[in-house]
Zinc finger C2H2 LYAR-type domain-containing protein (Coprinopsis marcescibilis), 68 residues
Amino acid sequence: MVSFNCHVCGDVVKKPKLDQHGARCHGGFDCIDCSKTFNSPAEWKGHTSCISEAEKYQKTLYKGPQVR
Ligand SMILES: [Zn+2]
Ligand SMILES: [Zn+2]
């Protein structure tokens, strides 16, 4: 399950709740795993699966430990 960070209130929101939450906060979201920014429902709807575990691992090696 992909989780997102609300730009407005900072809440962590799961994919199925994004539309509902976006309607309330009127803001965009960042994907927690890949740090991509999504500013509209059309954008986050396309993000049904995130980077693979391997990519995440390489990214962690490259950039150092991520702050969660
Ligand atoms: Zn919010
Ligand atoms: Zn992602």
Q: What stands out?
A: The chain has one domain: 3-63.
